[in-house]
Amino acid sequence: MAWPRLSQRGPLLSRFSHHHVVVFLLTFFSYSLLHASRKTFSNVKVSISKQWTPSAENTSYELPEEIWSSNYLFPSAEEATLFLGTLDTIFLFSYAVGLFISGIVGDRLNLRWVLSFGMCSSAVVVFVFGTLTEWLRLYSTALYCCLWIANGLLQSTGWPCVVAVMGNWFGKAGRGVIFGLWSACASVGNILGACLASSVLQYGYEYAFLVTAAVQFAGGIIIFFGLLVSPEEIGLPGIEVEANPEEDSHRPLMSGADSEDEYEPNYSIQEGSTHQAAQAKAISFQQACCLPGVIPYSLAYACLKLVNYSFFFWLPFYLSNNFGWKEAEADKLSIWYDVGGIIGGTLQGFISDVLQKRSPVLALSLLLAIGSLVGYSHSPNDKSINVLLMTITGFFIGGPSNMISSAISADLGRQELVQGSSEALATVTGIVDGTGSIGAAVGQYLVSLIQDHLGWMWVFYFFILMPPGSRCYHNANRTSLVDPTSMSGSPASPDPCPTRER
Amino acid sequence: MASRGPGGLWSLLPWAVALLLAVEMALALPEICIQCPGSVQKLSEVARYCKQTPNLTLQARCCLNQKGTILGLDLQNCSLKDPGPNFTQADTAVIIDLQANPLQDDLANTFHGFTQLQTLVLPQESRCPGGIEAWYTVTYYKDTQTCQGQRNLCNSTRHPGTCPENGSCAPNGPGLLKCVCADGFHGYKCMRQSSFPLLMFFGILGSTTLSISALLWGTQRRKAKAA
C-alpha cells in the first residue's frame, strides 16, 4: 500500500490507492462500452434501412434483383426508419423497467457477477440482433423487437451496478467532482461507439455490431476478473458512514415520516463495523422508495432526462431540419451538448463539494437552464453562436442531470438511514434512473408528436416547462424532508483507513 | 428383395450407380438442344466454330464444352415463331444460328443476359437485337443476316443512365445494360467493401482481454476474500 504516497498532490488524491484508480477506470469503461453499443445502433441506422429495403432508384439500366432488390422487409426506407424509431422507444421502455429490477437484483447478488453477466449477455444479444440475423438473412420484425427488449433489460444492469461500486469506493467528500468527471462515461461511450461504427461500417453494418458486441463481451470478462466491488473485499476499511450531524434537528421529522422499525435513530458510527454483517441484508424496493429524497429526485430526474435524451436523439435532426445543415456536420456539432454536460457536471459537482450542499447548486442550475433553453430556441442560423448556446444548454441541463444520476444517487443510496451498508445503492440508483428513463421514453414520443403537429418552437416551450417541474419536486424534497445530499462539515468518524491522511 | 439380405442390396449398388449416371448423362443435355429434332447442320457457322475450337463437341443442336456449357446453338429451320422459354439455357452461347425460322416477335428482350454472344445469324426479315448500334458489324446476305461483335454501350452517350451508389454499368446482352457492383464493392446493394479481418480482430481482442484480465486479477482480485 505504498501507492498513495506516490500521488500526494492534494488531500483528495492522496486518499486514493491504485485500487481506486482501477475501480474508477473499470466502471467508467464498462458503462462506456454499454453506451457505445447503443450509439452504434443509431449510427448504422441508414445502412440497416438500406439493407432491409429494395432499391427505389429509377434508372434505364436493369437492376439485377439479387443485388438491388431481394430484401423486402420494408417497402421503403421511410417505413424502415419508422420501425427503427419504434425500436428506440421499445428499448427505452424495457431499459426503464429493467433498471428497477436490476437495481434490486444487484443489491442481492454480487455486483460484479451482475455487471459482468449483464455486459456479456447483452453483447450476445447485440451480436444476434445485428450480425447473426444478417449472416443467416433472417430479417423479421418480431425477432428484432424481442431481441431489443432483451437488450434493454440486460443493458439496464450496467448503471445501478457501476454507480453502486463507485459509491462503495468514493466517499461523500469529493464525490461531486469525481462523479461529475466519471459521468462523462456516457459521452465517452457515444464517441467510442461512433468511432467503432464508422471505422468498420465499410465491411458491412453487421461488423459494426460484431465489433461493439465483441469489445463489450471482452469488457465483461475483464470486469469479472478485475473488479473489486468494495474496499471491504480486500480487507480495506469501507468509506466513512455518511452522517448529517448538522441536520440532527430534522431527524424526528423524518423518523416520523416513515416509521420503519429497522432504522435506529440513535445509530452511531462506532457501532457501524460491528453492525455491518447483520445489516448486509438488502433493502426492499418499497423501503428504497421510502428513503428520503428518492422519489422527489427520481421525478426531478425524469423531467431532466426527458430534455437531456431529447437533445441526444433529436439535436442532429433538428439542426439539419431547422437550419439545413448537413447531417454529418450536424452529428459532429451536437457533440458540444455532451461537452457542456461533462463540464457542467464536473464543475457543479466541484462547487457542491466545496459548499458541501448539492441542492443550492442544482436549484440555481435549473433556474439558469430555463434561460439557456429560451436562448437556444432563438439561436440564429450561425454555427459558432449555436454551438456556444448549445454548450451552455448542455452545461445547465446535462450538468444537473449527470449529477442526479450519479453523485446524488450515490448520496441517496448511502445515506445514514441505510446505515452504511451498500445494499441499497443499486436499488436506489435503479429507481432514480428507471424513473428518468420512463421520462425519457415518454419524451421521445411527445417530441415527435409535438414537432409533427405544432413545430419545433413548441418543442422548446415543452422543454422549458421541464426545469421548473424538476425544481418543483426538488423543492418539495428540501422542505419536507431532510436532504441527504447535503454534507456534514467534518466527518464525525475516526478515520479508520490507514492510507488516508487528513 | 428383403429376403436377399443386405449382401444382395450391396451387389446391386454398382448397377444402380451406373443407371443413375446414364440417366444423368441423358438429362445433362439441355432441353434447348433437343427440342428441335436433328443435329447441327454440317456446313453451318456453328459447326465450323465447334470444329475450329479445341475440346468442343457437337451434340444434337448444340456445341458444348467439356463441362456441358452451351457455346454454340444451331436452331436453323426449326419453324420457330419465337425461341421459346428454354432459350435462356443458351445464354452462355458465343454463336447462335436462327436462320430459316419464321420469327415474329421483336427479339430485343430475347437475348437478355447473352453477354458472351459474338455471332448471331438471323433470317433476313428480323432485326439485330438492340439495333445496329449494339453490334460492331451487321452483314446482310440473300436469306440471312449476321450480327457480329457486341458493343459495350456503357460509355456510349446514347444511354445516359446512372446506377445507384457504388454500382456500375455492365453489358447485359445485345443493347441491354445492367448495374453491377463497382470494383471493390460487393454484397446487397454493393454496400460492402473488402472483407473484415476476423482472425486478426479476434486475435488482438482475445490476447488483450487475456492480458488485462490476468494483470487485474493479479493486482486487484487475488487478495479478495470469497464473498
From TrEMBL, chain A:
Membrane topology qualifier:
Multi-pass membrane protein
> Where is each Major facilitator superfamily (MFS) profile domain found?
23-502
Record's subcellular location: Membrane
Alphabetical list of PROSITE patterns matching this protein: MFS
For this chain, the family text in UniProt reads: Belongs to the major facilitator superfamily. Organophosphate:Pi antiporter (OPA) (TC 2.A.1.4) family.
Please give the PANTHER family that the UniProt record associates with this protein.
MAJOR FACILITATOR SUPERFAMILY TRANSPORTER 16, ISOFORM B (PTHR43184), SUGAR PHOSPHATE EXCHANGER 3 (PTHR43184:SF12)
* Protein name from the UniProt record: Sugar phosphate exchanger 3
Q: Which organism is it from?
A: Erinaceus europaeus
TrEMBL record, chain B:
Signal sequence, start to end: 1-28
- Give the stretches traversing the membrane: 196-217
Question: Where in the numbering of this chain does the EGF-like domain appear?
Answer: 150-191
Disulfide-linked positions: C181-C190
Which domain of life does the UniProt lineage start with? Eukaryota
Keyword terms, alphabetized: Disulfide bond, EGF-like domain, Membrane, Signal, Transmembrane, Transmembrane helix
Check the record and name the InterPro entries matching this protein.
Answer: ATRAID, EGF
Q: What is this protein called?
A: All-trans retinoic acid-induced differentiation factor isoform X1
